[in-house]
Amino acid sequence: MRRGLVLAAVLLASTAPAAQGAGDPYARLSRDGPSLSVLAKKLRKSLACTAGIARASRNPILLVPGTDLDPGPNYSWNYERAFGALHWPYCAVTLPQHATGDIQVAGEYVVHALRTMSARAHRRVDVLGYSQGGMVPRWALRFWPGTRSMVHDFVALDPSNHGTVDANAVCQQQCSAADWQQAQGSHFMKALNSRTETFAGIDYTVIFSRADEIVVPNLDASGSSSLHTGRGGIANIAVQQICPNDTSDHLAMGTYDPVAYALAVDAFGHETLANPGHVPSAVCAQPFQPGVDPATFASDYAGFLAAIGNAQQTAPQPSREPALECYVFARCKLPPR
User: Fold this and answer.
1) Rounded to the nearest 5°, which phi and psi values hold at 189?
2) Which residue in 224, 72, 47, 40 sits closest to 125, CA to CA?
3) Do the beta carbons of residue 64 and residue 133 sit within 8 Å?
4) Number of folded domains that form the chain
5) Which residue range forms the structural domain that includes residue 202?
6) 61 lies in some domain
7) pLDDT tens, 209-255?
8) Contacts of 8-13 spanning 24+ positions with Cβ under 8 A
9) For a tag site, which of 119, 131, 148, 300 has the least CB within 10 Å?
């Protein structure tokens, strides 16, 4: 099955139309980003924060959900509870259409969230993202350079940093805009990873599972999730490096895997890259991460799955990948701000 998906990806890449703006280099890394096109009212409504965000004593954490999800079903029954118990302030951003719409638009929501949080807290922001949520903040950092000084630790759980051949196979028919953009070799992915993948001053901890069946391939640090270029600090860590028998799939990684959680908390707690050596082997025997209530796990996880199913049923299904915005390209002449 996996071999067939890889073949499909190769065939699609070889037959896809030339990228928009082919022959033109992508925007310089230092060029100012465009004004946000999303209405300010929508941006304000998308961000929900704990009371401790104002003038926080530690970096507040921005939670970014995965495709087909809002923060509630993704984080309310796990990470939000755990961070609350630690007295760590956080905000959660709701992306358009349950994170199934154009990721270029979702990136604007992340830009607004970072600006708002850093201004309220008077300090830098840490980021926790799952799947698409672990990738879309990189779009904000790539094309809105002013956000780079606002971020310190960036922890991504099974992020789709280089796309997935699963999307290549699904999108041979119709799929959501976000799925089109997360296909391996998509125009969006080429723009996202243009010129560099990381930026100085930001620590990028990528946590992935070799058992991931959604972001494929992800068998090692050469897979989709991992980052490699740029001046930022980078740690690409498979949960199996700590617990060889960890069989967590993609959905578990973003909700209840205790190894992923331990690595994320290590990064945020030490304000640097996660270190697998800091995670005790006893974590391997834990069924759930802190924050997950064993008594309500079945219903909480069922709600998580139901949210994904509902989003997939209601998401618009365009017949092609959304066009890249002008600001992506060096030839674009942005209007004065």
Assistant:
1) -65, -40
2) 47
3) yes
4) 1
5) 38-309
6) yes
7) 999 999 999 999 999 999 999 999 999 999 999 999 999 999 999 99
8) 8/165, 8/168, 8/169, 8/172, 9/165, 9/168, 9/169, 9/183, 9/184, 9/185, 12/168, 12/172, 12/183, 12/185, 13/168, 13/184, 13/185
9) 119
Label the pairing between strands 151-157 and 203-208.
parallel
Spatial separation of the C-alpha atoms in residues 304 and 134, rounded to whole Å: 18
Whether 86 is in a domain gets the answer yes
Burial of residue 157 (CB within 10 Å: 0-12, 13-18, 19+) is buried
pTM listed for this prediction: 0.92
3-state secondary structure 68-111: CCCHHHHHCCCHHHHHHHHCCCEEEECCHHHHCCCHHHHHHHHH
Tokens of 119: 């201004």
d(CA 172, CA 110): 29
Judge whether 29 lies within some domain.
no
Taken in order 303, 305, 308, 314, is the CA torsion positive or negative?
A: negative
Please check whether residue 102 is in contact with residue 39, taking contact to mean a CB–CB distance below 8 angstroms.
no
Token pair for 179: 């799925």
Q: Domain for residue 22, yes or no?
A: no
Coil, strand or helix at 60: coil
146: CATH: 3.40.50.1820
**Rounded to the nearest 5°, which phi and psi values hold at 205?**
-105, 115
Are 151 and 127 within 8 A, CB to CB? yes
Residue 164 CA to residue 190 CA, distance in Å, equals 13
**Which strands, in side-by-side order, build the sheet including 151-157?**
47-49, 90-93, 61-64, 125-130, 151-157, 203-208, 233-238
Q: Give the separation between CA 144 and CA 163, rounded to whole angstroms.
A: 21
